Amino acid sequence: MGLVYAEITLINAVDMGMAKRNLIGEEEIREVKIEMMVDSGAYEMAINESLQEQLVLTFIEKRKAILADGRINEYDVVGPILVKFANRTAICSAMVLPGNLGLLLGAIPMEEMDVRIHPRRQELIVDQKHPEGPQLSMRKSRKAVAKTL
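Now predict its structure.
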């Protein structure tokens, strides 16, 4: 399978909360619409420094990540970010890659939005079992329950 990209909207979730409390106007909410590489093999979302500056996201912590080539690097984690695709949203944090490196949508926000990669069309799609909106599992699998007993 080749590389998959999708048009994603990223919104500063703190700005959204401030607008809901009428502390700032709706027009002051910082958001960007971008093309992101979609990778279900990566857990987290990654943005770059210029996007972090544009959205003015809050530093949360430093976290280590294992890269595709096996190297381990430490990155700033920022957020909260509201991620939008089609009729789906997720709230998450993101690792900040240096400079203008690529943007990555990983498995955690994909699961929360209930979206999938269509392998033949090589595109991000909403789960066709739940086209009206995401449906998430709130229960443990039977294997996990059996191990805890």
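The chain has one domain: 4-148.
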